[in-house]
Amino acid sequence: PIYQRRVRPAMGGLSIGHYAISAGTFACLVKDAGETFILSNNHVLANENRGVEGDPILQPGRFDGGKTDRDVIGRLDTFVAVDPEEPNIVDSALAAPFEQRDVTPDILGIGRLRGTKDADLEEKVMKSGRTTRKTNGTVVDVSATLRVGYATGSYLFTDQVIIKGERGAFSAGGDSGSTIVSYDGKAVGLLFAGSPFFTIANKMSNVEKALDVKVV
């Protein structure tokens, strides 16, 4: 499937990852003072706080065959550290693409985003991700607090959005980093965890605030 292949220009929904992880999903493009970055999770682009600025970012991710210089789309720029002691609000990071022409603001199967907003309870949403591709779901919580297990430990998250899939699972492993999109084309969340029953996402407004960026 195209979701797990090397694609240029790369876009939201495709496989991506820090060179030391398996693979996650390219969320979308964001801007900070005119500069364009690739958005995804800390655990996708920064290897759960272990990444260092400048580390190579592969598209596709290592698990999908990304391993040569040709697959290096950019470098780790910055990430919001996940805190083991305090409640976390986002699991997010930015990669700087080496070439602007190697990335596009489209999301595979969804198209261009039309800004950001907060999701409403019971709102219908969709996402495009590396593993389960395009899926639809319903927002069932807009202010959840829960503990999420990672390779490096378990972390408390607060002010999260929870989505239930329309037909079966909304997401699976490897979909981390997918943009949650409303039916009117707005980015409402950044997928970072889930189970076969529920998917958990950071509010995109919190991600923009934490990284001081705007969704393109």
Describe the overall structure.
This protein has 216 residues and is mainly β. It has an eight-stranded antiparallel sheet. It starts with 9 loop residues before the first strand and ends with a strand.
Count all strands and give the number. Answer: 16
User: How would you classify the quaternary structure?
Assistant: single chain
Please give the count of helices: 2
Series of H and E elements: EEEEEHEEEEEEEEEEHE
What structural class should be given to the helix and strand makeup?
Answer: mainly beta
Unreliable spans: none
The portion of residues forming beta strands comes to 35-45%
Cα-atom Rg, whole angstroms?
15 Å
The general outline is globular
Taking the sheet with the most strands, its summary is: 8 strands, antiparallel
Mean pLDDT: 97
The neighbouring-strand order within the major sheet is: 3-2-6-7-8-5-4-16
State the end-to-end CA separation.
26 Å
- State the helical fraction: under 10%
